[in-house]
Structure formats: structure tokens, C-alpha cells
Amino acid sequence: MSAESDMEYSDNDGDDYDYYGGQDDCDMETVDRSKADPEYFVFSCLKVEEVEKLLNESIELLSNSLHITPSLAKVILHAYEWNAQEIINKYKENSNEVLMYSHVKPRVPSVQVYSSIKVCAICATSPPIHKYSALACGHYFCNECWTTHFEVQIMQGVSNNIQCMAQECEVLAPEDFVLSHVTNPTLRERYQQFMFKDHVKSHPELRFCPGPNCQWIYHAVAREGARRVECLGCELLTCFTCGAPHHAPTDCATIRKWLTKCADDSETANYISAHTKDCPKCQICIEKNGGCNHMQCGACRYDFCWVCLGDWKSHGSEYYECSRYKEDPNLINDNQHAQAREALKKYLHYYERWENHARSLKLEEQTLACLKTRINRKVMAGEGTWIDWQYLWDSARLLKRCRYTLQYTYPFAYYMEVGPRKELFEYQQAQLEAEIENLSWKVERAETTHRGDLENQMDIAEKRRTTLLKDFLEFNTTNASSSKV
Amino acid sequence: MAALPRRIIKETQRLMQEPVPGISAVPSETNARYFHVIVTGPEDSPFEGGLFKLELFLPEDYPMSAPKVRFITKIYHPNIDRLGRICLDILKDKWSPALQIRTVLLSIQALLIGAKPGRPTCKRRSRAVEGE
Fold first, then answer.
1. Considering only alpha carbons, which residue of chain B is nearest residue A126?
2. Does the keyword Membrane apply (chain A) (predicted)?
3. Which pLDDT score, from 0 to 100, does residue A326 have?
4. How far is CA A402 from the centre of its chain?
């Protein structure tokens, strides 16, 4: 066999391989999206009725296996964060402990004897004995007082945690007990609404969509890290783990820190940056409150020029002139004030970019809306079908997704420690940013851009985005490192 | 105004007939839910020998919600602020309808004996007391 034919074979092999390899990739996408999309997270978006069904299944399971009423099952499930299996196991070991932990049973039972009750301790009246009732703790009060107690508590928004009226008694009133005393239909309804909200909030696998007036509820298996869920109703992107807006590649703790920092500091920081300068001698922060540029530092009495920060002596006698070139830029000492200013500069650098992308995102939202009407007009005018113009729509949506990720790379970079990893991150970030701006430019001029060109740009931008996420999403990197080990 | 609940009448009667030592609570002539209270500073406390005026008001849904109590006499105490508002658990989240005016006032008197610096209404005063 000659060497040439060998070469030919191997070339062919290579082609075949690529061809099938491409096919394989496509299959992978449908089979295992987690490989293609680093943010991929399994969740479902449920309606209120579906969630009620889901909760009822747990309640039924527990009430059947422990032979207790559904109301009691609710109290216990709420206390144990809806982990029915754990409750059943613990109940087998020590049923009393489970009941006491969930405040169904008292730690110290009452010594009051039912037949000896004469006066209700709350209202000081003495109704006939059959008009008294008590929870498992045996603190008897008249039914009228229970009713008022529950009504007041429901008005205050308490539902699952309504306690017995006795002093220092922590036993909770289960649903059936409450509803048997409350007759007002509005209050009953409110009680059940609050109850449902409480249940969803205490359930680790459920989360309300935080969108305004949004009724959808996410259902997913809780895991660490930034986990993207998208609402079917309002299309809001949320992090399932912490409930903040989705924030990959930044992790939950960092984004919380960043958002509070932004809420606290931004205005002050902007003001300081816009209206103050540091004294060139003692670096104290100075706000200029008059028109004259001859400044005297309040702390060190140094006279200087506001415009060039040079010594005023050289200004006073001679012709007013401060357009001179700064001779000594290394004047800055590394004292506290200089450091503070430096920290502020760093923060503003990231904050401005973060804000800017948030603004762009809003503007591109409008582009997206315009695009829809434009496509509609084209379709109505007979210039192709929706399918023909679908790529325009896709490109705008992809742009939004990329811009969104880009915005959330800034808090990540702000808190990152200086080092090769940060350099890599910032390199990738810059690459992503450049491609996004290209894409944005092309989307805005979609009509005049060649379709192939646009689709190519979409592909590049999305690749950059996924690469960055794959490399820096916390749970991806930890997975990768653990699999290496 | 609705008729006074039996519970309030009973409590008022008992406060008059067998008053708590060191505490006097007299309902206002115009409003039976408003009480003028005088607490004497407890022995062996920094407030010994003092007379402290308070006001106590029973809201509409008393005893389902806690009475509103406030010091009128100025007092320097880590759990009482400049306006005389009191930080006391049973007046807030630990309120139980089984508690009464008498028990509330006793708790306030006890608060004058043992200040709770960990849970201050007024941080500055709390620090001052801890520093003592």
C-alpha cells in the first residue's frame, strides 16, 4: 500500500468523522441539553391549582401513613419543610418528639380539668360548659373568644402559626380547628389564601414568580448556585435558589452583596465622584460650594487651584493659567483617602457598566417590540411568511439573552480577586461584549444586514456566552474539578 | 362606643379592690379604656424612691391584642426610649390574651429592676448601662 492512498483514506475518514460528529452534536442537544446550555436547569412552571394538587398529595400521603387528620398533617409538614419521608421515619422512631417539635402537642400539658371550668379566662363570662374548647394542650377557652382570637390573627396575616391563647403556650391551631370557629366567609377565604402562600414559601421545591401580579409558581429540585427559571406568564428570569433576578455567572451571595451595595452606595458614590475632589496635600475629600477656583483646604490649610489641583502660589501673582500640563501624576500617596477614592473609582467602573447594560437591555426590549410589528407588517404585505422572518425575532431574543448575561458578569468581576483567573474572565468578558455590540448593531439594522451575516454573528455571540458560563458558573466549575479528581 | 366588655370591667374592679403593691392604675373619667398609671421605683434598683407616670390604653380588640403602654415621666433605661415607648416582649410578639393589665404592669415594674441590655429600644442608653 502506498503512502498516498493512506493519506486519502485518512482524509476521508476525517470528513466522515466531522459529518457524523456534527450529527451527534445535534442529537446531544435534544437528549442532554445540560451539555449545550451551561445554565440548563430542570424546572416546571405551575399554576396555583397544580401546586395545590402537589401539596395535597404530600398531605394525603402523611395523613394516611400516620393516621392523622389532613389539618394536622399540614401543621407537621410545614414544620418539617414538607419532607414527608423524613417525618414518617422520625414518627416511627419517636412520634411524641415529632408532634412536640411541630407544636401539635405541648411540651408541658395543662393541668386544667374540663369539668371544673366555670369562667372563661379571656372574657370573664361563664357560658355553658359545652361552649368551651381547647387544643391538644388542654387550655380551655370559650368558643366566642377563640373566634375573636382567630379573626384578629387572620386580619394580621397569620395563618399557619396561630398559637393557643394561653400564656407561653406554643401549640398551633390546625386548620380544621380554626375553620370550625371562624364563620365570616371573607376571613375564611383570606385564611386559606395566607395558608397557601405560607405553604409555598416553606416548601423548598416551590417558589413564587416574583413578577408583579404574577400567579405562576416554579417547581424544581433545590440545588446550590445560580439556577435559571423562566416564568411562562411574565417571562421574567429568576434564580430559583435565592429568588433574585437570574444572575449567572455571579453566585447568590455575591449578587445579594452587590445589589445591596448598589442600593446603598450608588447615589452617594455618584455624588462624591461628581462634586468632590481630594485635597492634593492631605487627600481629604472636598466639596466645592462657591464659584472661586482658589481653594483652601479646611483640614490642612493648603491653597490650591480647583481646576488643575496645583499650588495656588503659582497662580496668584502671575496670569491665571492652569491649562499647564500636569508634571507629576505620581503625587498620589497610598494613604487612606487615596485608597478610598481608588475603591470608589473601581466600584463606579463596574457600576456604570452594569447600569449601562441594564439600560441597553431596556432599549433593546423596545427594539424587540418594534421588530414584532415590523415583521407583522411584512407578512401582511406578502413579503414572505413568519417563518421567513423568524430569524430576526430569534436574533433579537438572543441579543437580549447575551446582554443579560453580560450585565451580570460585572458584579462577578467586581468581587473577583486579582489573578490569572480574573484576567481570563475579563478577557472572555471583553470578547463577549465586543460580539454583543456587533450583534446589537446588526440587529438594529436587520433589514440591510445579510441574513447569513446576522446568523453568523448570533452564533459567535452565543458561543462566547456559553464559553464564559461554562468556565465560570460556580457549580459547573466545581463539577468539572470534582470530575477531574 | 360599644358597651365595655365584661373582661375590662372585671379587671378594673379587681385593680381597684386589690391593687398591686407599688402600682396604681385608675381609669380615666371620660374613657374607661384609658388608664392613668403610677409605678413606684422598685427597691434596690436605680429607680428606687421615684414615681413614674405611665399611660395605658386598651385597644378595641383587647384582650386579643396587647394594651398600649408608654412612660410619661422621662426615664433613663435601656429598654425605654426618649418618648417613653417600652421594649417588652409581652407587649409585642409574646402577647397572649390570657395576660392582663395587672400582669403587664408587673412586668414593667420588673423591667425597672433588671434591665435587658441585649434588646434595647435605645442603643446609646444600653451601652451606657453595659459600661457601668
1. B6
2. no
3. 45
4. 17
